[in-house]
């Protein structure tokens, strides 16, 4: 665990030694404000809730999380430092987990910086803070799933741009497969159990379920399995590229 913590600390520090972390945080906060107060019409609703705030998170992560994950392994491969990293007394699994945790912590920092919006809602009314906490947890888990996916695709290429595009594309597909408009298109073509299985693969479906304030095991397990699965795939990808 000490080695994982060391890698996590090194990677997290590397984010803040470049403009990446600051640009990510600023854009995330600005877009959250715009989406919540303008596009989401939070004040016009006349309700003390953060529904407009969280509704846009799946789409914000679709654009911003690939920017965090794209250089996690692609840059290591391009510069040749991956070989150096693998010669150190660190296992591939430890390196994968350490890099992932660094990105996930940075996303947690971004979410923590949005707490003033939560405070504002409490000042204006009496929201259900239990539901808000569940939404924050669901948002962070969903961001972790996006990040793990991005790490895997970053390990598959030397190009950060390619990693970004692949992550955004696959993330988009995993997001929209649960939308009613998409499911309607499949009805009549495939059986209902297949449609249910497709909907169950959607990040949006499980995030909305958590957003209702009910922390069901199946939703928490879905994102946990997604994170673990993509991290295992990342390790296998690195092992494959090493040989």
Please explain how this structure is put together.
By secondary structure, the chain is mostly helical. The chain has one domain (2-242). It contains 15 helices and no strands. The protein has helices at residues 2-16, 19-39, 42-45, 51-55, 57-69, 74-79, 81-87, 92-112, 115-124, 129-155, 160-176, 180-186, 192-200, 203-211, 217-242. Helix 1 (2-16) crosses helix 8 and helix 5 packs antiparallel against helix 11. The mean pLDDT is 84.
What radius of gyration results from the CA coordinates?
A: 19 Å
Q: Give the number of DSSP strands.
A: 0
Fraction of residues in helix? over 70%
Mean pLDDT across all amino acids: 84
Task: Supply the number of structural domains.
Answer: 1
**So how many helices?**
15
Label the structural class. mainly alpha
Q: Per the principal axes of the C-alpha atoms, what is the gross shape?
A: globular
How large is the share of residues in beta strands?
A: under 5%
Let me know the largest β-sheet. Answer: none
String of helices and strands: HHHHHHHHHHHHHHH
- How many angstroms separate the termini? 26 Å
Low-confidence stretches: none
Keywords:
243 residues
Write the layout of secondary structure elements.
Blueprint: H1 2-16, H2 19-39, H3 42-45, H4 51-55, H5 57-69, H6 74-79, H7 81-87, H8 92-112, H9 115-124, H10 129-155, H11 160-176, H12 180-186, H13 192-200, H14 203-211, H15 217-242
Provide a quick synopsis of the model:
The protein is mainly alpha-helical and 243 residues long. 81% of the residues lie in helices and 0% in strands. Helix 1 packs across helix 8 and helix 10 crosses helix 11.
